[in-house]
Input
Amino acid sequence: MELHQLRYFVAVADQGSFTKAAAKCDVAQPSLSQQVIKLEKELRHPLFERLGRTIRLTDAGRALYDHAVAVLARVDEIRDRVTAATDPKRGTVTIGAIPTIAPYLMPSLLKSFGKKFPQATLALHENLTDPTTRACLAGEIDVGIIASPSASDLLHSEPLFTESLLLALPPSHPLVKKRKVSLDELEREPFVLMSELHCLGDQIVGFCRQRGYSPVVRCQGVQLLTIQELVAQGHGVSLIPAMAHEMDRGRRCEYRELADPTPTRTIHAIWHKDRYQSPLVKEFIRALRDHAARQGN
Output
């Protein structure tokens, strides 16, 4: 049983005519008829009732039809998948990004990449660092974007850019009058931080401890928008990534640079070292590098 025989059979059934089926399949009618006859001989049952110019499926033909359509659809799907895997303009890229990066970095990147590759499908999964890393290890995502290097030897970890963490203050806070604030001036200030589930909260606490004190955490949140609103309402101060500051168009908070040493975080792209990368995935990584370079400037 050959695939082209199934295609010819389905075409005859759909067209109700050997002549029309031959034209649709771009093959000579005698060749098409011969292949259908070979298929009938192999199956040991006639597939069509040939009543003059009328063509109708037999019981055997009706039994074969749905299966033949399903097989051909599966073959076409396989061909499409292979094409997508080798065509740099088609296919799917699955990206994982942590919540303190995804809303600020990804929308503009996905928009520009989508314009360049309109036939591509981009799937974004927003999650915490550990789940994003595990998904990358499991092959569930093509590229992960996190705010720390990966500790796994199986993952390639590439620094994209380093961004400053800015001091977020309530608009009425006395330190707003200063152009730069030293970390020592924050020692007695209550902090509003991301919860311990997020790496950003740990990074801020670690930075403070390097300066010799532990911040007093009054409130915790799981979204930077919540942190910014809590700061704006006077519940404490916080350190906010520069990307989030740039997106705060309503300027709910006042932002100041910290005096040296300025706290920073480095954004990394990760992917499995041994996983095959389609041309489209490689194009996305190149676009990510270019986008990140502009973000870091």
